[in-house]
Fold:
Amino acid sequence: MKGRYKAFWWSLFAIGGMVSAMLYPAHMLVTMLLGPAGVVEMPTWEQAHALFSHPLFRIYLVVLIALPLFHAAHRVMAAFMDFGLRGPFRNPTAMILYGAATAVAAFTIFTMVRMM
Amino acid sequence: MTKRYERQIPGWWVFTKKTWFVFFLREITCIFVALFAIFYLRFARAIYAGPEAYADYVEKMREPWAIALHCLFFVAVLWHTITWFVAAPKAMRPRIGNKLVPPRAVIAGHYAGWLVVSAGLMWILL
Structure:
């Protein structure tokens, strides 16, 4: 699976890496650290809901959440190979990792389309 | 049947050399990237689920252990960002006219873009 479509998976890895490198630190700083620690106000539910239910922000969330999952799957797979994964377990491992990333990505799209 | 050659590399090879360990630290940040993606998906779902679910989720995020854990997340993802930008000139070799843009300029461009994007994001989120 990986051999034939290597360029495709690698491009997902690269885009996901760029998305997470550019966008994650600011999101984490605001939502995970400064907000909960009380340095800045957490948004009220009304404010948060207004932002998260905006169609453009939903599309943004799919990009933000789904693509880095493929980045992570690629690196975990590379790490397994670095630690000596060869032979018959290689393809099933790749399928589990990329399959999990695809499943969560599909669930993200489902969430953004269906949940109001 | 011919005998297969087995590599003689111990499983703990990443700990045997400093550069390999630094490489390993970069690769391992992907776990925290994936964890943040899942965290943010759950955060979004809590918002969609309604005011009570959102309040519960924020309550959990305010626990000291959660903040401590998230500090670790943040440091790991920051390391991902830094190492990603450092590696960027290896994958991108833009030219101006006939001249190759120097690697340091490519890295600096990424940092500049990152600062602009982060400032814009903070403006939206705060």
In short: Chain B has four helices and two strands. Strands of chain B lie at 95-96, 99-100. Chain B has a mean pLDDT of 91.
